[in-house]
From TrEMBL:
GO biological process terms held by the UniProt record: proteolysis
Protein name, UniProt field: Zinc metalloprotease
Domain CBS: 338-398
Single GO MF descriptor: peptidase activity
Classification via PANTHER family: MEMBRANE-ASSOCIATED ZINC METALLOPROTEASE M50B, STAGE IV SPORULATION PROTEIN FB
Length: 414
């Protein structure tokens, strides 16, 4: 599955395990639950039911290794999305493994239906290929009379990868098949927004069908698998709904540059200022919850200020300063506790505002810094985007009169 927007807020990595092909790989805490569930289901259910009489330790070891290989398969699915996305000019934030599988978070969307097909289609294709590979492996292991539990484990991996590939190919957003459906509708209509509406509508219908089927299965047969199916359906409904709303926002913001939404000349704080002085200064205490940190020699010295023209080095949220023990605040510098620039989203003033949507998060630590020629010129927060959207929607009739639809929007919300 590929996520180009903030589909579900929970899909955020709890910790990072490293990088593969330059892509950061994260794991959400919910993976521990599903991992334990898979190991338990195999060790206490499938393996002993299929081939009883073996030591319990063998079943648990086989279940553990099989679950690890399964999550490796999920990672391969998402890495395929990421690699192909990069080859088609779409940057990748990271890959997160979580409760319902995996998600590759992309900075922006494909610029053509053909690119969309390549990015979306490669995931299910990789899963199906892996399914075929494991099926072939199971057959070869059976031919050479390998241990029956090993054969069963490989058979399970083959089946689950084929199921993963087929399920993701269902034409319903936010599944990969929904991306393929959107690409088809986009190609036929030439309108990406209408195509997204069609794909998200299909996603909601499919999700509600899964919810209904899962609840019916649970109530009639008492199967807890029905509850899991309902949970998957609910996720699809929620994700498709959020995707549809995000698509509408992208349509409203189309052609609007970042400079029209940013707060220009923001109040800055020198990285060399002490935390005690930072907290004591009224400019920082009462105005905002986070401030761009800049190099001392380009921000007016120790006093900081509102020139907003320094060289940015990070972001200083008030919460981080308050977390410093009071006795240490006079000796601890802002630069020691700030969010470093490498962890802050940085954009240019002429970048499309719509492309910033997938990267925006709520909270003081997620302000976006606007930099031009190495100098800070503005800050963008989620409230800035909300204000811009409100202005654009309220003034839409007046703005559209007499405008060429292809002309770039050159107005600024007040």
């Amino acid at each position: 599955m590929e996520l180009t927007e903030k589909k579900v807020a929970a899909v955020r990595a709890s910790f990072t395990i490293g990088r593969i092909a330059g892509v950061r790989i994260g794991v959400h805490w919910s993976v521990l639950f599903i991992f334990a569930l898979i190991v338990w289901g195999l060790a206490q259910g499938r393996f002993p039911d299929a081939y009883p009489g073996h030591p319990p330790l063998l079943y648990w070891a086989a279940g553990l290794v099989t679950a690890l290989v399964f999550f490796g398969s999920l990672l391969a699915h998402e890495l395929a999305h990421a690699v192909v996305a990069r080859r088609n000019g779409v940057e990748v934030d990271d890959i997160v493994l979580w409760l319902l599988g995996g998600a590759a978070r992309l900075h922006s969307e494909a610029d053509s239906p053909s690119a969309e097909v390549r990015i979306a289609g490669v995931g299910p294709l990789v899963s199906l290929v892996l399914g075929g590979f494991f099926a072939l492996g199971a057959w070869l292991l059976a031919v050479v009379s390998a241990h029956e539990v090993l054969v069963e484990a490989v058979v399970w991996l083959a089946a689950i990868n084929v199921l993963l590939g087929v399920f993701n190919a269902v034409p319903a957003a936010p599944l990969d098949g929904g991306r393929l459906l959107r690409a088809l509708l986009w190609w036929r209509t030439g309108d990406r927004l209408k195509a997204t509406a069609g794909a998200t509508g299909a996603g909601r219908v499919f999700g509600w069908l899964l919810v209904a089927a899962g609840l019916l299965l649970f109530l009639r047969a008492g199967s807890y698998g029905g509850l899991w199916l309902a949970l998957v359906g609910w996720f699809l409904v929620a994700a498709a709904t959020v995707e549809g709303r995000q698509a509408q926002l992208r349509g409203v913001l189309a052609g609007v540059p970042v400079r029209h939404a940013m707060t220009a000349r923001p109040v800055t704080v020198p990285a060399a200022m002490s935390v005690a002085r930072f907290l004591a200064d009224p400019r920082y205490r009462y105005r905002h919850s986070a401030f761009p940190a800049v190099e001392e020699d380009t921000s007016g010295g120790e006093d900081g200020g509102e020139d907003g023209a320094g060289r940015p080095v990070g972001l200083m949220p008030l919460d981080r300063a308050l977390a410093v023990p009071e006795a240490r605040r006079p000796s601890v510098l802002v630069g020691e506790v700030m969010v470093p620039l490498a962890e802050v989203t940085v954009v240019g003033p002429d970048d499309p505002l719509a492309d910033l949507l997938p990267r925006m998060e709520s909270g003081a630590e997620h302000r976006v810094l606007v930099v031009e020629h190495g100098r800070l010129v503005g800050v963008v927060s989620s409230s800035d985007i909300s204000r811009t959207v409100t202005w654009l929607m309220s003034s839409a009739p007046r703005r559209d009169q007499g405008k060429d639809p292809g002309e770039e929007r050159r107005w600024r919300p007040r």
